[in-house]
Amino acid sequence: MRQSWTAIGARSFLIAYNVYLNTVDVGIAKQIARAVRHSSGGLRYVKALGLLIEGQAQVSMNLTDYRKTPVHRVVEMVRREAAQYGVSVQRSELVGLIPQAALTDAAQWYLQLNEMQESQILENRLAVSGQQQTAGEVPNAFLDSLAAGTPTPGGGAAAAHTGALAAALVGMVARLSLGKKRYADVASEMQAVSTAADKLRADLMASIAADIAAFDAVMCAHKLPHDSPADTAARDVAVGRALHEATLVPLHVADAAAHVLALAANVAEKGNPNAISDAGSAAHLALAALCSAALNVRVNAAAVQNVVARQRWLEEMTTLENGAAEAAEAVRYTVQKRMALNSQH
Question: Domain spanning 1-109 has what CATH number?
């Protein structure tokens, strides 16, 4: 069974992080990469390769869960391993995006601020105090970025954003069904739906950044040198790894959108009929998010060389699409029926 993106990246999407050593000996970089990556006995949630980039040895890493294996722990292990070979870290490089929490964790560790709270960060406090005034600026900023002539954000991020909108509408309809005697018998169910919708909304919003980071990693991998057979082999491995992650993100978005669609069906059937059009809108948006994510799954999976993984992803995607089509049709019927009843009163 595919691991949920909630487990590997909703809280901490893939961080692409490179460390440059003050040596041209790529063999040292490869030994360090072997020591730190999980597949050869190193740190959990770390993938690493040793490369020679523009005459400088580099340890290229993907960190898939910074909460469980924080960035500072990885960097310190690289430093210790480098010291054994008489070399040191010259500089590091971030590829794509990084969650603010990952930087906060590193600052807390290096500065030994063990009791520091997130609320002590000035920008966090300002964001909370100015939330109402700036609420309209956030979607505008995303749309402006989406419309810009850059590869990211693209269709995958837009799919995640659309799914989050659907989840928000589901949460709204569920809450409009709470605290009213007429719907007292479904109050506990609507409360559970609103909680689930909120979690899915947060998950899908996190997937926007995850999709951007994953595709940025693919582009960076394609830019790696391939002047020699060894370079070409390393580049192919990096590209394959990046494509693998870039396929998992929209696949998770599709799975989350399918869950949102199921919740939309619930509120359409049992929720406040005065918000029935919102329930229907949520279902349409969830279906659009799933279909958009499916396009990204297929285009990325087509470039993955692992035939077994590719076939598994495509089969899962087909199952999600078929189930969503049936669910969407059921919601459409329910919405039409309840709207007709409303018009008779």
Answer: 3.30.70.670
